[in-house]
Design a protein that fits this description.
The complex is a heterodimer of chains A (261) and B (267). Chain A has a single domain, classed as MetI-like (MetI-like fold), CATH 1.10.3720.10. Chain A is 79% helix and 0% strand. Chain A has helices at 13-32, 37-44, 48-54, 59-94, 103-118, 121-132, 136-160, 165-172, 177-211, 220-228, 232-260. In chain A, helix 4 packs antiparallel against helix 9 and helix 8 (165-172) crosses helix 9. Chain A starts with 12 loop residues before the first helix and ends with a helix. Chain B is built from ten helices and no strands. In chain B, helix 3 packs antiparallel against helix 4 and helix 3 packs parallel to helix 10. Chain B has a single domain (59-261), classed as MetI-like fold (Orthogonal Bundle). Classes of the chains: A mainly alpha (261), B mainly alpha (267). Chains A and B meet through helix 1, helix 2, helix 3, helix 4 and helix 5 of A and helix 1, helix 2, helix 3, helix 5 and helix 6 of B.
Chain lengths: 261, 267
């Protein structure tokens, strides 16, 4: 008996064009970044500059000098994620089709949030250090922009997919648009908001570590000065301290998320 | 009318969260010596900086310096993503608890967590004395960080597959390798490929920043122009970077959408 096997469809245009282009671009990129095995081997001989002090950490020095800055880092992250997320909360209602009926303002808010998101966090930090001066305040402002952009994107997409029934019900019983949004759209997205907030808080903790490299406060400032003098024996314990703090805060936030949701 | 009361637990939770948020922000703001007044004057200060950037420096010399740097960032991001994709793909099978042994999966997951905990910039300046100032350092930093993140995401995709195809391969005599190749890979490939592209978008922003420590890319250009107070040229750097990120984001988002949706096949 012969079984009629359906024919395999031809490869799609995307895969026909996409795979060769992706492979060629990868090869081209590796050439452009100057990947060269000879140089790499020669440089690998220099590794003792880093690796020797890396495994010979100076703990007392780090705890004495970096703990204050580490605290500052955490404070920057807390303040920035709280302010950024709460600024983004009303904005994302305007940047969603479900709760904003005016097409023009929808596009304005949506592209405003997209625009903020295209600028990397450290670029914001550089801009703010020039604008408001060097110090943790510039870092806070940079991370506010950072968390606002992420929260705006995540939350406005969540609002797009809410159940429109309660909104209609509120309007049918005589609520104005804003009242309807406040009383029936907001409660629907509050659990998501909390989850996103904790996620963004984790991102901010990670991001605030490096803010100091451009002078925006936090523990990065100390890393930067020691890095210039190649004191990797002082950097290792700081990095380990940061890792411990980051992992502890992440565990706390995972625990809190499970508790709330 | 009889309105049901809100559960007591929920009320406590709500007050605790509000309390935590208020206390947290007050503690942070006082520790950093930040006042409302500084917040209120910040936008106008940023505006002064932005207006100093216009008109942009559109001279040919500026472009011949900036565009190669922006291109370098693009190459770093792509090459880093390729490194991350190649290495994370096999690792993600080891980390998924439905295809690997439980012990192996747990150990691999912890290793991925540790890799993920290092920000790209910190990796970059650890590599800097070894691989030298230049894009190679940035690529390695981006690549290694991507292994951690992509490995985690991919292993979660593998854990969420439908076990049916695996069983049918097993029952028709396929080996464990056959199961992975014909049962797991076809199911997870679309999602994992779209994660690779998504990671490329994130890496693009990361690689733009890496120049700050001298690991190649456009960041060095921006920080130097800002230090020398050459605001029009700093503005050009910003605008060119934003344009590149926007273009790449749009293309990559369109491809991701197409990959996830799949093409229509006439039978």
């Amino acid at each position: 008996m012969k079984i009629k096997v359906p024919k395999k469809p031809l490869p799609s245009l995307l895969s026909l064009v996409g795979y060769p282009v992706a492979i060629l671009f990868s090869v081209f990129s590796f050439f452009q970044i100057g990947f060269n095995l000879e140089d790499f081997k020669r440089n690998l001989a220099n590794r003792s500059i880093v690796t020797d002090p890396l495994f010979n950490p100076k703990w007392e020095w780090a705890i004495e000098n970096a703990s204050q800055a580490l605290l500052e880092t955490i404070q920057i992250a807390i303040l920035a994620s709280i302010l950024g997320c709460f600024i983004a909360l009303p904005l994302s209602f305007y940047a969603s089709r479900a709760t904003n009926q005016t097409t023009i303002t929808y596009y304005i808010y949506k592209s405003f949030l997209n625009f903020i998101r295209t600028i990397p966090d450290l670029f914001w930090a550089m801009l703010f250090t020039v604008a408001v001066g060097i110090g943790p305040f510039a870092g806070v402002l940079a991370l506010i922009m950072f968390s606002m952009a992420i929260m705006g994107k995540l939350l406005s997409e969540t609002i797009d997919s809410i159940d429109l029934g309660p909104l209609e019900a509120a309007k049918a019983s005589g609520a104005k648009h804003n009242q309807a949004v406040f009383s029936s759209a907001l409660p629907q997205i509050l659990p998501n908001f909390t989850a996103y907030f904790l996620y963004i808080f984790e991102l901010c903790i990670r991001a605030s570590v490096i803010l100091g490299l451009v002078g925006a406060g936090g523990v990065g400032r100390i890393i930067e000065t020691q890095r210039i003098f190649l004191r990797f024996d002082r950097i290792t314990p700081i990095i380990v301290l940061i890792l411990i703090a980051v992992i502890a805060i992440e565990q706390f936030s995972v625990w809190l998320r499970r508790k709330i949701l | 009318m009889n309105i049901p009361k809100q559960p007591f637990n929920q009320k406590i939770l709500r007050y605790t969260i509000t309390f935590l948020i208020v206390i947290g922000s007050i503690w942070s703001a006082s520790g950093l010596e930040i006042t409302t007044e500084r917040f209120l004057t910040a936008p106008s200060k940023l505006w002064i900086l932005i207006s100093a950037m216009f008109p942009l420096d559109l001279s040919e010399e500026a472009f011949s310096r900036i565009v190669p740097k922006v291109g370098e960032s693009l190459f770093i991001a792509w090459a880093g993503t390729v490194i991350g994709a190649i290495f994370s793909f096999p690792v993600s099978f080891l980390a998924a608890n439905n295809v690997a042994l439980n012990m192996v999966s747990r150990v691999t997951k912890q290793i991925l967590n540790i890799i993920r905990a290092f920000p790209e910039l910190i990796l970059a300046f650890v590599f800097l004395p070894i691989t030298g100032l230049g894009p190679l350092t940035g690529t390695l930093a981006v690549g290694i960080h991507s292994i951690g993140t992509l490995g985690k995401l991919s292993s979660e995709v593998i854990e969420g597959i439908d076990e049916g195809p695996l069983e049918s391969i097993k029952s028709s005599g396929g080996s464990k390798i056959n199961e992975l190749l014909f049962g797991v890979v076809p199911q997870v490939m679309p999602t994992i490929t779209s994660y690779w592209l998504y990671r490329f978008e994130i890496n693009l922003r990361a690689s733009a920043v890496l120049g700050v420590v001298g690991a190649g890319g456009v960041g060095a250009e921006l920080i130097n122009q800002l230090r020398f107070r050459d605001f029009p040229r700093a503005g050009t750097v910003l605008v060119v970077t934003i344009l590149m990120v926007l273009i790449v984001d749009t293309i990559s988002a369109a491809i991701r959408k197409r990959i996830i949706k799949g093409r229509e096949v006439k039978v």
